[in-house]
Design goal:
alpha+beta; 5-stranded antiparallel sheet; 7 helices
Length: 141
């Protein structure tokens, strides 16, 4: 499912298998952010004043650390999908990515796309590096 990352700066979207993975994505970045599914029915609240762990336990019946352990691969995949831009931008982004078959050119395209952010917080690149770290790969960008 597509999610919009709710944050005070640039628009970002990502793909997550389910609400738990979406929550893990948000928690991996900052609990000062939230997420909303494209249809508006799946929400990860913004926890400015705390309560993130309690909410997670109530929603998923385990701690965020236990969720991370159980869904590490899904989390890495979701973090890799973080994209600068909104839902309509994602449609164009995915169309371009599907036409690029060379892995190096694909990685270059992703880096160039992410470079369009206006904020000093480059959330997309941060998420991509974190995904590589979770997958046990060296973060190269």
């Amino acid at each position: 499912m597509e999610y919009e990352l709710k944050n005070p700066s640039d628009p970002y979207t990502f793909i997550a298998d389910d609400l738990e993975v979406a929550a893990l994505v948000v928690f991996s970045i900052s609990t000062l952010y939230g997420a909303v599914g494209k249809e508006g029915d799946s929400v990860v609240p913004i926890f400015i004043f705390g309560g993130a762990t309690e909410w997670y336990k109530e929603q998923f019946g385990r701690t965020p650390d236990d969720g991370l352990e159980a869904k590490k691969e899904e989390l890495a995949t979701a973090l890799s999908s973080m994209m600068y831009g909104g839902f309509e931008d994602r449609r164009r982004y995915e169309a371009a990515l599907s036409a690029i078959t060379d892995p190096e050119k694909r990685e270059n395209f992703i880096a160039e796309w992410q470079d369009g952010h206006s904020s000093s917080s480059d959330i997309g690149t941060y998420c991509h590096k974190l995904a590589k770290s979770l997958k046990g790969q060296e973060a190269t960008t």
